[in-house]
Amino acid sequence: MKKAALALLVLTVKxxxxxxxxxxxxxxxxxGEHYTELAGVKFWYKVAGRGPVLVIQAPGWGVGSEYLxxxxxxxxxxxxxxxxxxxxxxxxxxxxxxxxxxxxDMVDDLEQLRRFWGLDSMTLLGHSHGGAIALGYxxxxxxxxxxxxxxxxxxxxxxxxxxxxxEIAARKNDxxxxxxxxxxxxDFDPKTDEQFDSFLxxxxxxxxxxxxxxxxxxxxxxxxxxxxxWAYHAFAAPDKPLMKEDGSxxxxxxxxxxxxxxxxxxCPVAEAEHIRKGxxxxxxxxxxxxxxxxxxxxxxxxxxxxxxxxx
Length: 311
What we know:
There is one protein chain. By secondary structure, this protein is an alpha/beta fold. The chain has helices spanning 2-21, 66-71, 103-117, 129-140, 161-169, 178-184, 193-203, 211-221, 229-235, 269-278, 294-297, 299-310, and strands at residues 32-38, 41-49, 53-57, 80-84, 122-127, 145-151, 255-261, 282-287. The longest helix is centred in the first third of the chain and has 20 residues, at 2-21. It starts with a helix and ends with a helix. 39% of the residues are buried.
């Protein structure tokens, strides 16, 4: 009798351990940091906040999601935010083949993650190149996007060179941007993460309407791992195919909010206006006295617009 009871106890313990080792669906979106491997890439993501789910799409050229996780933290009072590092950046691993560092690959990643998270649809917020990834996703998977927020976003295959050059020219005689413009126009071929990080810091003043006040505030949010020079070179390879977005914006079905800083040179107002014309259910808000990071420079207006739209 004692042997039978002992055997039953051992079996019960084994079953309990086995069950505990199997992730339950709700654990995937539990608050905190997580890792999951999908299609040969190990992704790092973090869940924080409470309320409706809002997926934050970071750029995919070497920076992680840290600056967004710190900068957008006030949204956690209204939403459950899911942040993740794109392939090859920060805590997420590199793909086996560097040719698979395209924006289209990152759209595939987001779809894999959506399925993993068990989301029937999602509201998606993308910043900068993260906006291009979000656009690509909303074009390819329109039924899975409930709402789309594009913050100072670019379009993968849109030629905005003339708009950028015009914005740079308008700043060339401003002493606040002199050194940044000199760095931007110099030969740039970083070999290490440290060199890449140093370059980005030199040109960063150009990304603000008022760098004197904006830079220190941004620095407090930019506390993650160094940007990956490997990811940058793989992403910027000259033979890398671009997603066909410019002529496909009308495929997007989601209600869309487009936010852009009036002083943004890298993703200029003209490009945001082009996006608005292409997406039928969209609204454009141009934010005065702001550059590429409106949650830093015009935080009250920025958060009010996002909360009103996404709630």
